[in-house]
């Protein structure tokens, strides 16, 4: 996957990202749910003000960098910066399917081996943005990292069979942006947070 893939509007990048495979160290996951955020054109975006802060500065940087934020005092969430420098665009990774590194993911999520997970724990392994970020072992320390220059990361193009487009989740107080249909997910995937 070339950097130019991300040098577009996140509304275009997001559905094209579904089915892609992301590896971070020893964990490989297939992306099955994403949301697009359009900076100053999107009241739900952290970059809505159009001005970088210490927290949001990576969103205004080059495409293909990470924007990792901390929320609710306990969770990290992973975004990939899109568009041109200064736009504040990104795609939030919301859900995935684990391809390899199951034991490491299970240890990070539930402090036990994958073989000992209950069916409920297996179902809820990476079906949500905070779960996905925890499974990859990423924190705000990784915010600003360049996917194309850090050897821990590898991303490959993939495909999703059936894509569903709907409104985003968990942003009830974002004015008209609450209703923007910028969430995309692969129908039928167990890695989707909410159908």
Describe this structure in words.
The model has no long low-confidence stretch (mean pLDDT 95). The chain is α+β, with helices and mostly antiparallel strands and 195 residues long. α2 packs across α4. A hairpin with a 3-residue loop joins β3 and β4. The two termini are 28 Å apart. The relative contact order is 0.24.
Radius of gyration: 16 Å
Q: How many DSSP H or I helices?
A: 4
How many strands appear in the DSSP assignment? 8
Judged by helices, strands and strand pairing, the structural class is alpha+beta
| SSE pattern, N- to C-terminal | HEEEEEHHHEEE
In angstroms, what separates the terminal alpha carbons? 28 Å
Shape: globular
The major β-sheet equals: 8 strands, antiparallel
Q: What is the average per-residue confidence, as pLDDT, rounded to a whole number?
A: 95
Percent strand equals 25-35%
Report low-confidence residues grouped into runs of 5 or more.
Answer: none
User: What share of residues is helical?
Assistant: 10-25%
Layout of SSEs?
Layout: H1 10-17, E1 21-24, E2 27-38, E3 66-71, E4 75-82, E5 89-100, H2 102-110, H3 119-123, H4 129-136, E6 153-156, E7 163-166, E8 183-186
Antiparallel strand pairs: 1-2, 1-6, 2-5, 2-8, 3-4, 4-5, 7-8
Helix pairs in contact: 2-4
């Amino acid at each position: 996957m070339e950097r130019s893939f991300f040098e577009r509007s996140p509304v275009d990048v997001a559905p094209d990202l579904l089915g892609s495979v992301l590896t971070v160290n020893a964990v490989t996951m297939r992306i099955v749910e994403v949301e697009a955020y359009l900076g100053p054109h999107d009241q739900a975006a952290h970059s809505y003000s159009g001005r970088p802060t210490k927290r949001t500065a990576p969103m205004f940087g080059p495409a293909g960098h990470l924007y990792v934020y901390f929320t609710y005092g306990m969770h990290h969430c992973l975004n990939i910066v899109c568009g041109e420098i200064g736009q504040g665009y990104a795609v939030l990774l919301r859900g995935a399917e684990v391809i390899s590194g199951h034991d490491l993911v299970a240890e990070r999520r539930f402090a036990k081996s994958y073989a000992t997970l209950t069916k409920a724990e297996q179902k809820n392994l990476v079906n949500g943005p905070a779960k996905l970020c925890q499974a990859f072992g990423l924190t705000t320390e990784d915010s600003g990292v360049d996917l194309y220059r850090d050897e821990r990361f590898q991303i490959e193009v993939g495909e999703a069979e059936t894509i569903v487009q709907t409104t985003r989740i968990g942003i009830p107080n974002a004015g008209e942006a609450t209703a923007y249909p910028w969430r995309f997910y692969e129908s039928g995937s167990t890695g989707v947070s909410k159908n």
